[in-house]
Every structure is written in C-alpha cells, then in structure tokens.
Write a structure and sequence with these properties.
By secondary structure, the protein is of the alpha+beta class. The protein is 40% helix and 17% strand. It has eight helices and four strands. Bound molecules: 2'-deoxyadenosine-5'-diphosphate and magnesium ion.
Length: 150
C-alpha cells in the first residue's frame, strides 16, 4: 500500500478547514496511518522544502509554512500519492480543477492550503521528517474491501 505525506498548511488551519480537508481525503477512501497537529520549525521547513532552495518563492514559503500550526498526516492506499494530489488540485489554485481542495478554497499559489508528496521517492524522504515509525499505524478498516479491490 502506497503512503504519502499530507500537510494541512497554516492558512487552512487558521481558516477552520482542518475537518473539511481531512473529510475530502477520508471520504475518497484514503486510510489515515498517522495524524498530528504540530508547529513546523525553521530547520524542518528548510529540510522539507530543500528542493526549492534558491528559488524566489523559497523564503516566503518558509515563513508561510512556519507561521502557524499545521496538521500532518500519512495517508495510504493504492496510488495514494496521485490520488491525494488529484484531490488537492494544481499547485496554483487559479489553475486547479473545480472540486479540488485548492480550487474550492484557494486564490493564490502562496496560500494553497495543502501539501502532498509528489512521488514515491519524495514520500519516502518526507514521511520520516515528520513521523517516527511508531507513530505510523498499520491496520485494516472493516470496509477496506469495499474501497480497495485487493
Ligand atoms: P506542490 O506543493 O504542488 O508540490 P511545488 O512542490 O512545486 O508544488 O512547490 C511547493 C510550494 O511552493 C507550493 O505549494 C507553493 C510554492 N510555490 C511553488 N511554485 C511557486 C511559484 N512559482 N510562486 C510562488 N510560490 C510557489
Ligand atoms: Mg511539491
């Protein structure tokens, strides 16, 4: 089962959208393997977004992601990475498809509400930045067989 790291970003927490965003992933069928509210410090922010170091939006991005608590989750399911990113929508909310989280709640690329790992290698790098192995739970839901074919 594939795993992805999701961050409900500071703007979404401040706007009272934690439940709404979790619901969209949960309703789709993604299984929550880990979940917590936390404050991202500068060290963690710089590590998580290291791939963007040097880009013009890097410093504002670090200020934004450290500006208020976030909710971080590990979601799992078949093709969890792509499923989550399609539920989130395009990086820039004005380009995101209607019905996605970023389109339905966002206006600006620098306030795009949610993060999701963009590939298997990224997920394997990002998940351990936020969660220890003991915090990630392996379990079955009673209705998994009605959501996951195998
Ligand atoms: P995503 O979050 O969709 O994976 P990304 O990894 O390319 O997008 O960028 C990380 C975050 O940085 C993104 O959520 C918002 C911000 N960002 C990306 N490109 C930007 C740009 N051109 N201008 C301003 N902010 C940008
Ligand atoms: Mg990314």
């Amino acid at each position: 089962m594939e795993r992805t790291l999701i961050i409900i970003k500071p703007d979404a927490v401040q706007r009272g959208l934690i439940g709404e965003i979790i619901t969209r992933f949960e309703r789709r069928g993604l299984r929550i393997a880990a979940l917590k509210l936390m404050q991202i410090d500068e060290t963690l922010a710089r590590r998580h977004y290291a791939v963007h170091e040097g880009k013009p939006f890097y410093e504002p991005l670090i200020r934004y992601i450290t500006s208020s608590p976030v909710v971080v989750m590990v979601l799992e399911g078949p093709n969890a990475i792509e499923a989550a990113r399609r539920t989130m929508g395009a990086t820039n909310p004005v380009e995101a498809a209607p019905g996605t989280i970023r389109a339905d709640f966002g206006m600006e690329i620098g306030r795009n509400l949610v993060h999701g790992s963009d590939g298997p290698e990224t997920a394997q790098f990002e998940v351990p930045l936020f969660f220890s192995e003991e915090e990630i739970l392996s379990y079955q839901r009673e209705n998994d067989r009605w959501i996951f074919e195998e």
